[in-house]
Amino acid sequence: MDSLLIELAKLRRDANLTESIQDVDKILEQLEAARESIVQDPNSASFTLAKLQNPLKHGFDKVNEDLKRVHKGQSAYGRALDKNLPHKELPFDIDGLASRPALINRAISMHLLREGQFQVASTFLDEAQENPPQPSPMPGTPNFSEMDETEVPSLKSQELQDKFSNMYAILNELKAQNLHPAIEWARANSHELEKRGSNLEFELSKLQFVWLFLGPSVNGLPNDLNNGLSGALVYAQQHFQRFQARFLKDIQQLATAMAYSSNLKDSPYYRTFDIETAWDDVSTSFTREFCSLLGLSAESPLYLAATAGAIALPTLLKLYAIVKEKRTEWTTRSELPVEIALPKSMIFHAIFVCPVSKEQTTDQNPPMIMPCGHVVAKESLQRLSKGGKFKCPYCPGESILSQAREIIL
Ligand SMILES: [Zn+2]
């Protein structure tokens, strides 16, 4: 894999388009200059055009040469990929989703919309509507064909597009270090955000305070009374009132920090004013809250599913080979027979494995807590109790079945 990384570095270094772009820009400049001089003196047109011929030819040759280098780099990388990752046929005789093409199209459109690829999404939706996909369930895969494909809820694409373009407009402002549109949005939605226990509105306002506090040398805003310490103070007086009930301690700390303004670096509040990651952090929180108010997760589900699938693929291929070789069948329905180690960021639901039966709990066999506080799966509990009083397998506690309560993870 190391040799592949070396090839990738080479590709980035030698085969990027920077020079091509510069050379194309040069040609554009020459053309624009020629147009300008023709506009100023129309009589000079033929002379100007004649003069342009050689430099233009030279320019185009240069662009072609640049591109040759890029092609060369790309094919070298392609060869390295083939060598390092030899092509293996995937067993395509199983396609668990072949019976739900409309659902897949919906997931793709949704992904494009939430990534801000509005034009692509609209083309995709148009084409999908013109050529509605036909379900083609395969033998041995879950058959959803009885389900009506029209049941797939239609995507309110225009509405979603409007919302997401608003989100991207605000994110762009955040990138340009302008907090105002994000704060306005958070204020307009403060009721819903608060209901979710979100701190977003305060976090944004706090950053605005810090941003002003750090002054013109950091924030690049005009050096006047609305900036620096005085600007931060005015901002706090105008806007922090509404946060007092929930964030009094933070506000007190921000106020006390003012006393250290000349020597912030050595103050106990240094961390609050270290905003290296603050803009990225608020952008992430903003995206998460914005999506959650739309009833969506912060990460694209399609992206997550595809990434998790790519991680799981080697294990699943191995499993597939074993199942095929031993001619056994995959017997569990709602659970994979092997564990797929996914990164923490991809794990959304806590799972519970019963310490008695060693089985993962399910909706039908949920975890049950006994009065002593120990937890086992429902089926294990039923086996233990045999209807009467029984002793917990982990402590001397005794209980009866009806005292156990289901745990919702
Ligand atoms: Zn116990």
TrEMBL record:
It is found in: Cytoplasm. The keyword Nucleotidyltransferase does not apply. One of its GO terms (biological process) is proteasome-mediated ubiquitin-dependent protein catabolic process. The keyword Metal-binding applies. Signal peptide: none annotated. SUPFAM superfamilies: RING/U-box (SSF57850). GO terms for cellular component: cytoplasm; GID complex; nucleus. InterPro entries: CRA_dom (IPR013144), CTLH/CRA (IPR024964), CTLH_C (IPR006595), Fyv10_fam (IPR045098), LisH (IPR006594), Rmd5_dRing (IPR037683), ZF_RING_GID (IPR044063), Znf-RING_euk (IPR027370). It holds the Pfam family CTLH. A zinc finger (RING-Gid-type) spans 354-395. Its main location: cytoplasm. Residues 163-210 form the CTLH domain. GO terms for molecular function: ubiquitin protein ligase activity; zinc ion binding. Keywords: Cytoplasm, Metal-binding, Zinc, Zinc-finger. It comes from the Eukaryota. Residues 354-395 form the RING-Gid-type domain. Residues 128-151 are annotated as: Disordered. Belongs to the RMD5/GID2 family. Involved in the proteasome-dependent degradation of fructose-1,6-bisphosphatase. This is GID complex catalytic subunit 2.
